[in-house]
Amino acid sequence: MDPTFELVEAIRATDNAVYLLDQRQLPDIVDYLPCTTGQDVIQAIQVLAVRGAPAIGIAGAYGLWLESRRLRDTPNFHDELKKSAEQIQSARPTAVNLSWAVRYALSHVQSLGVDDTIKTLKQIADQLLAEDVALNRQIGDWGLSLFDGKVSLLTHCNTGSLATGGYGTALGVIRSLFREHRLREVFVDETRPLLQGARLTAWELSQEKIPARLITDSMAGSVMAQHLVDGVIVGADRIALNGDTANKIGTYSVAVLAHYHQIPFYVAAPLSTFDANALSGADIPIEMRNPDEIRKLRGVNIAPEEIETYNPAFDITPGRLITAFITEKGVIRPPFDKTIRDMVSGNAP
After folding, report:
1. What pLDDT sits at residue 346?
2. Average pLDDT score over residue span 199-209
3. Which pathway does it operate in (predicted)?
């Protein structure tokens, strides 16, 4: 494992606990939350101590393992474990990786005894963590084929090692470009209201000395108008079969701007992010967040306390605004109604 992947680990597991990097405290403090039950993992997911679709999927699998340990001596062990799985899956509704990972793990232990279930769930969670790093590297390398010469890119939210098992999806493509000396610089949207771009992406890029400039979300159009970027690359939390994509709020605005300025707009995501049950964006549930995430900034009021808010965590970018999807199996191009179905068939657990 090369040094860039040792710098940032969102998830660490031992024989009896899972440690999740508390991303709420970054970039000031690097601290890990110890989790010994599924409820600990659910709480960490809900408060965004761990976030990013692939990362919360992996965390969910570890949460199911922790629940199997807690339920070891419980009558109707498998029935209770299934209830715990449902609770973990519902921790955040939009990112499909969470339900995918939990269902995948549960499907492998239905006929096993208690001890074998506990052992197998830990093996599966470890496997998902290791495989995520490998497939992110593959996503990064597929992304290389989309760019000629040195490029400057704009990205939104955080899609790196903090949001995955390691390396990253959209940020993984950026890492691969940097590795091959084909990256000029990255423009990083701050990503309001929780500043995942400013706090997390900028921190990751700084850790690895990747050239980057931080901008406010409202500057993206100006950056494109000045021809400072050659493309946009983002991640995803759920992708429908027609290409409609749920990602961090503000992604849709960036896609519209890229379309107007005739700049390619790419989405990098593993196949587990594609939802075979979602025909379009209308089938994707959108999580609503606490109003104080808009009214306050790290506990300090930045707006009147009585003002009403509208605070969806995600928006839907229509497939017609997306140039291509970058997956571990290759690049998916339009017409998405056909090409996505062809790529993801047989991927569901």
Report:
1. 54
2. 94
3. Amino-acid biosynthesis; L-methionine biosynthesis via salvage pathway; L-methionine from S-methyl-5-thio-alpha-D-ribose 1-phosphate: step 1/6
What is the pLDDT averaged over residues 148-176? 95
CA distance 4 to 200: 15
Domain boundaries of the chain, sorted by first residue: 3-136, 146-344
R_g (Cα) of the chain, nearest Å: 20
What does the pLDDT look like over 24-74, one tens digit per residue?
999 999 999 999 999 999 999 999 999 988 899 999 999 999 999 999 999
CATH number attached to the domain at 3-136:
1.20.120.420
Say which amino acid occupies 127: Q
pLDDT tens figures, 285-330: 999 999 999 999 888 999 999 999 999 999 999 999 999 999 999 9
pLDDT at res. 2: 37
| CATH code, residues 146-344 | 3.40.50.10470
- 3-class SS shares of the chain: helix, strand, coil, % to 5: 45, 15, 40
Neighbouring C-beta atoms of residue 342, cutoff 10 Å: 8
Tell me whether the omega of the peptide bond preceding residue 27 falls within 30 degrees of 0, making it cis.
yes
Angle between helix 114-144 and helix 77-89 axes, rounded to 10 deg: 30
**Residues tagged in the binding site annotation for substrate:** 51-53, 92, 196, 247-248
pTM here? 0.89
Question: Is the pLDDT at 334 greater than 50, yes or no?
Answer: yes
Active site residues: 237
Handedness of CA 171, 334, 258, 144 (dihedral sign): positive
Residues annotated in the binding site, as ranges?
51-53, 92, 196, 247-248
- Residues 19, 55: contact at Cβ < 8 Å? no
Rounded to whole angstroms, how far apart are CA atoms 298 and 159?
22
Question: DSSP letter string over 80-124?
Answer: HHHHHHHHHHTTSSS-HHHHHHHHHHHHTSTTS-HHHHHHHHHHH
DSSP letters spanning 228-269: --SEEEE--SEE-TTS-EEEETTHHHHHHHHHHTT--EEEE-
pLDDT, residue 348, reads 43
Task: Report H helices in the chain.
Answer: 38-46, 53-70, 77-89, 96-107, 114-144, 170-179, 196, 202-207, 220-225, 251-260, 292-295, 336-344
